[in-house]
Design a protein that fits this description.
This protein has helices at about 1-20, 25-30, 45-60, 105-125, 135-140, 155-175, 180-200, 205-230, 240-250, 255-260, 470-475; strands at about 280-290, 300-310, 325-335, 340-360, 360-375, 380-395, 400-415, 430-445, 450-465, 480-495, 495-510, 520-535. With about 550 residues, it is an alpha+beta fold. The longest helix is centred in the middle third of the chain and has 25 residues, at about 205-230. It is globular and about 95 Å long.
Length: about 550
């Protein structure tokens, strides 16, 4: 099964790398034939003037960085830049991204839940999915999510913190794909999730599912919407267009569905109509070893891994900032024996912010939303964080720069293991929690030679609901702390191909008065080949 998952991941990643490359519209070929002087048409200067005017109009959608139409445009009413420094739109063109009635995304959210309910009850035959008007009434009688009649569910970690966010993304994109912005789309994730808890299950509604589906789903939904925008190009036709639509629909299914019913999959324009930012992809393939409970290096089992990282937007471009104009998302996999396939998912996106300078050091200051999901053989942890962050770029020499970012977040909700975990458990073996977290990432870029980096995560979490098992480590509440240190080095071999090594050191401790202290220190090593796919239209976008 893991081989099937990774084949799918590779298919999406490789196709996406080629899919995001911009393609000139077919009209360019048509006009190019008319871009020559015809002596039989009279005044040469007049012909040149007309040809130039046609090119400016045609290329105003940022096809080439060398044409006048590529420069940032200003509204005739307000002094607002409409394009970024790469000539791409800063906002989806409202003329081609119509905002529909709120009844449309509401109806689609209901449709999502009806379809899911039919699959769970009629095909998968889950008992908890057998619902009727009586179960609806019972769940409505439970009142608000913070009332004592709502519960904490007992399902396994991946279902709570990865499965639920995915469905939240569907509700969110019901609205996003119908012309709503980030803030206006967010409530639809909550509405869809609440409707499911009341009408989709016959068990006591669980508050943790509502929280994770809503907040994590909003973040995932916006990221997938942005990635699909970098793939879509309504100027293309034929096979190129077909595969762009297919891939974008696989990444953001609700957007693909809406494009189909709204006729956008076959629409052809002569200009770009979607917001796009630089998007670079890093693919890692290699091996990793989770050491035994000792200090010995490479003392555990060796497993294969394929990881992928998305870096979207330029943090140092001086521009106005909308939610998720800049984000980072990294998936790490474990292809070894066992059920745990997704080792961890980490990422953050800007909500509000501004650019500044400290001397000659460019900065990005803002408030960020972050997501951390760790599900490995050592521990389980998932948090959603909200707080300030700052990014900096310190020039140290020609082509040598030190990039650093730091975050301090509150964690309104999360989940954390407080004792040994099982790879086969199908029920909850972790506690729900809240608290705070801090992160710092720093990397020294030595031109095209090498990159040396270090990352440190620290989580301080208070458990609010135990799993109720007999073991003291599970049954206690108290405080859980976790530190993750990640030094890393990559050395360029040829062009965008590098070899790298990464070391992980995990230190976890759980303390609660009246219970034994649980603590563990364990390490992991990774050796990999790294393929860096830079956005071909925006090379060197951090320079």
């Amino acid at each position: 099964m893991k081989s099937v998952y990774i084949s799918g991941l590779l298919f999406l990643t490789v196709n996406f790398i080629f899919g995001q490359s911009n393609t000139k519209p077919d009209t360019v070929k048509h006009v190019a034939k008319q871009d020559t002087i015809n002596p039989n048409k009279g005044n040469v200067d007049l012909q040149l003037k007309k040809i130039k005017a046609k090119k400016i109009k045609l290329h105003s959608d940022s096809i080439s960085p060398n044409v006048i139409g590529n420069q940032p445009k200003k509204s005739s009413r307000i002094d607002t830049v409409m394009q970024n420094k790469y000539g791409d739109l800063l906002r989806d063109d409202p003329q081609y991204n119509k905002k529909y009635s709120p009844l449309v995304p509401l109806a689609e959210g209901i449709g999502d839940n009806i379809l899911l309910s039919l699959i769970d009850s009629r095909i998968l035959k889950y008992q908890w999915a057998m619902v009727n008007t009586t179960t609806w009434k019972n769940n409505l009688d439970a009142g608000f999510p913070w009332s004592s009649k709502w519960d904490w569910d007992q399902t396994r970690f991946g279902n709570d913190f990865m499965g639920h966010p995915y469905f939240g993304n569907l509700y969110y994109n019901d609205a996003r794909a119908n012309g709503y912005n980030f803030w206006a789309s967010a409530p639809f994730a909550l509405l869809g999730s609440y409707e499911w808890k009341i009408c989709g299950e016959n068990v006591t509604p669980e508050r943790n599912s509502l929280i994770a589906t809503t907040i994590d789903g909003i973040m995932l939904g916006e990221i997938l919407y942005r990635i699909s925008s970098n793939i879509l190009d309504d100027r293309t036709t034929g096979a190129n267009r077909f595969f762009r639509e297919l891939l974008a629909g696989m990444i953001d299914p609700m957007r693909g569905f809406n494009r189909l019913i709204q006729g956008e999959t076959s629409r052809h324009t002569n200009k770009e109509v979607y917001q796009k930012e630089p998007l670079n992809i890093t693919l890692y393939a290699g091996i990793h070893v989770v050491n035994n409970h000792s200090s010995a290096i490479l003392s555990g089992t060796t497993n294969e891994m394929i990881n992928v990282q998305f870096d979207y937007g330029n943090p140092f471009e001086v521009t106005s900032r909308n939610p998720f104009d800049f984000f980072k998302l990294r998936f790490e996999t474990d292809l070894g024996v066992g059920r745990k396939f997704i080792d961890n998912i980490t990422g953050y996106g800007i909500l509000v912010g501004r650019n500044a300078y400290c001397g000659n050091v460019p900065l990005l200051e803002g408030v960020f939303l972050s997501y951390d999901y760790w599900d490995n053989p050592i521990f389980e942890l998932s948090t959603i964080g909200l707080g300030p962050g700052v990014f900096s770029k310190l020039p140290l020499g020609k082509n040598i720069n030190l990039y650093t970012n730091a975050h301090l977040d509150i964690v309104p909700f999360g989940g954390t293991s407080t004792g040994p975990i099982s790879d086969t458990s199908q029920s909850r073996d972790f506690n729900f929690c809240y608290g705070w977290q801090a992160k710092i990432e720093s990397s020294l870029s030595l031109g095209n030679v090498a990159t040396i980096g270090i990352t440190y995560y620290y989580f301080r979490l208070h458990c609010i609901n135990s799993v109720g098992q007999d073991e003291p480590a599970y049954g206690s509440l108290g405080e859980n702390s976790l530190g993750i240190l990640q030094p890393k080095i990559t050395v360029q071999i040829y062009k965008d191909l590098s070899l790298g090594a990464e070391y992980y050191l995990y230190a976890e401790s759980h303390r609660d008065t009246g219970f034994p202290t649980y603590s563990i220190t364990q390490s992991e090593q990774k050796i990999f080949a790294q393929f860096y796919f830079e956005d071909p239209q925006r090379r060197g976008h951090y320079d």
